[in-house]
DNA sequence: GCTTGTGAACACATTCACAGCC
DNA sequence: GGCTGTGAATGTGTTCACAAGC
C-alpha cells in the first residue's frame, strides 16, 4: 500500500512546471480551454516531448488526440508545486533589489506572501513598501516567530548576508533564497539557493563572443 | 590545421567560472596568493574534482602539490569569459527591478557597462540612475546605434517585453537578457536568456514541502 | 488522424579514483 | 606528502520514435 515514490520530480522539471503554470494562467485568462503539448511547448520555449515527459511526472491527465484541459492542468501543477496555498516569506534587505522583490507581483500570484520586511538602515525602517511596513532587522527573530515564516529571502549587501542567513536558520527558517553575491553556508536541513543576477549575463556574453569569434569571418 | 573546437566550454562550467571569478577576486583583495581546488571549491559550494575539471577546460595552470596562483587564475578566467574588456549594455525598463539592475555594482565589476537606460514613462525620463540619465524608449534604436551596445537587458512589464525584444533585435543587439515574466521569441542569431525571479523561489518551496511531507513524521 | 504517454537511445554533467608531478 | 589533471563510471536530463488511445 506504500506508493514507491509518490512524488519524486526532477528538479529541472519542477523549474519548468513553474513556467508552464505562468503560461497556462495567461492562456486561461485569455479564455483558452484546451492546449496541445506542441502549443504549450512553443509558448514556453521547450521541446514538446520533454514537456509531455514533465507532465507525465504528475500522473498526467491529457486526452489523446485532443490535448490538455487548460484549467485542470493549471490546477494540477499548482497543487504539485504547492502554489495553491499561500506561503509566508520574510525579506531581509530593502535596497533597490529588495524593494523590487517586495513589489514584484509575480510572487503574490504564485502563492508567496511577504509577511515581514526587514532592514538595518534607520531611514528605511518605517517605510511602507508593497503594502508592508519595513521593520528593524534587530527584530528578525521576533518577526519570524510571530509570522511563522517558512521562507527567507536575502537581498542585503554581501558582507552581512552570512550573518542574516545564520539568524534566519537559527530562527527556524528552513528555506533561504539568496540574492547577495556571496556563497552562503547553512546547517544541514536548511536549504539555500543562490540567484546571481550577473551570472546569466556573463553566460550570455560568453555565448555571444563564442558566436562571432571576432575577425574569424569565413572570407 | 583547423583546431577541432578551440574553445567549447560546457555552459554549466561557464556559469561556475563566473562564480569562481567573484571568489578569486575577493581572495585577491584579501591578499591571498595561492589557493587549492579544495579551498576554492568549499568557498564556492562545489565539488573539488568538478572544480578541477572546470578549470581543465581552460588549459589549466595549477601547480601540483601547491595549488593555483590566485591572480593568474583570476586573469585567465576573466580572459576566457571576456570579462576583461568592457561590454556595452542597454537596459530597458526602469521600474523597481530595472533601477536595481542599473545600480547593481556586480555588473560593472564584471565588465558590463550600462551605456543606455530607457523607459517609456515620461516621469522617469530625465532621472539620473547609477550615473546615467534615463532616456525615452522611443530613442532605443538611436541609442543602440550611437553606443554600439551588444547586450540588451529587458526589465519592462510583461506586456511590452516582446516588442522591446523585437526592436532590440532589429537594432542589431544580438544578446538579450530578459527579466520580464514572459517567454520571448527572437530571430535566429539572437540569443535570449530568461531570468525568472520567482522560479527559484518556487523550486525552493517545492523542495521544502518535499522535505517534510507534513504530518508524515516517522513516529 | 491527431495527440498523449513512455521506453529506449542519446547527450550532458557530476563524481570517483588514481596516475603524474611538484 | 600533497595537489593537480583526467579517464572511467555513474547519474541526470533530454531527445527520439512509436505504441496506445481518443
Automatic annotation (TrEMBL), chains A, B:
Q: Which domain of life is it from?
A: Bacteria
Q: What does this protein do?
A: Modulates transcription in response to changes in cellular NADH/NAD(+) redox state.
Q: Which SUPFAM superfamilies match?
A: NAD(P)-binding Rossmann-fold domains, Winged helix' DNA-binding domain
Q: What is its main location?
A: cytoplasm
DNA-binding region boundaries: 19-58
The name under which this protein is listed is: Redox-sensing transcriptional repressor Rex
KW ATP-binding (keyword) present: no
Intracellular or extracellular location(s) = Cytoplasm
Q: InterPro entries this protein is in?
A: CoA-bd, NAD(P)-bd_dom_sf, Rex_actinobacterial-type, Rex_DNA-bd_C_dom, Tscrpt_rep_Rex, WH-like_DNA-bd_sf, WH_DNA-bd_sf
Which ranges carry the CoA-binding domain? 82-183
* Organism from which the protein derives: Blastococcus carthaginiensis
Q: Which residues bind NAD(+)?
A: 93-98
Keyword check for Ribosomal protein, yes or no. Answer: no
Keywords, alphabetical:
Cytoplasm, DNA-binding, NAD, Repressor, Transcription, Transcription regulation
Q: Assembly state and interactors?
A: Homodimer.
The text of the family note is: Belongs to the transcriptional regulatory Rex family.
Amino acid at each position: 500500500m506504500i506508493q514507491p515514490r509518490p512524488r519524486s520530480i526532477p528538479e529541472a522539471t519542477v523549474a519548468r512546471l513553474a513556467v508552464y503554470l505562468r503560461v497556462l494562467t495567461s492562456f486561461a485568462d485569455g479564455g483558452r480551454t484546451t492546449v496541445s503539448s506542441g502549443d504549450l511547448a512553443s509558448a514556453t520555449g521547450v521541446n514538446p516531448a520533454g514537456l509531455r515527459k514533465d507532465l507525465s511526472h504528475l500522473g498526467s491527465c491529457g486526452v489523446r488526440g485532443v490535448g490538455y484541459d487548460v484549467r485542470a492542468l493549471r490546477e494540477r501543477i499548482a497543487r504539485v508545486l504547492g502554489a495553491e496555498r499561500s506561503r509566508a516569506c520574510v525579506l531581509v534587505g530593502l535596497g533597490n533589489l529588495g524593494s523590487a522583490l517586495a513589489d514584484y507581483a509575480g510572487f503574490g500570484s504564485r502563492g508567496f506572501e511577504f509577511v515581514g520586511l526587514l532592514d538595518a538602515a534607520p531611514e528605511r525602517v518605517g517605510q511602507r513598501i508593497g503594502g508592508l511596513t519595513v521593520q528593524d532587522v534587530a527584530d528578525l527573530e521576533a518577526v519570524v516567530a510571530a509570522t511563522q515564516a517558512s521562507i527567507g529571502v536575502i537581498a542585503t549587501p554581501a558582507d552581512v548576508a552570512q550573518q542574516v542567513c545564520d539568524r534566519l536558520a537559527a530562527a527556524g527558517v528552513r528555506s533561504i533564497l539568496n540574492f547577495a553575491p556571496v556563497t552562503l553556508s547553512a546547517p544541514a536541513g536548511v536549504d539555500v539557493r543562490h540567484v546571481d543576477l550577473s551570472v546569466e549575463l556573463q553566460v550570455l556574453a560568453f555565448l555571444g563572443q563564442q558566436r562571432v569569434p571576432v575577425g574569424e569571418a569565413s572570407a
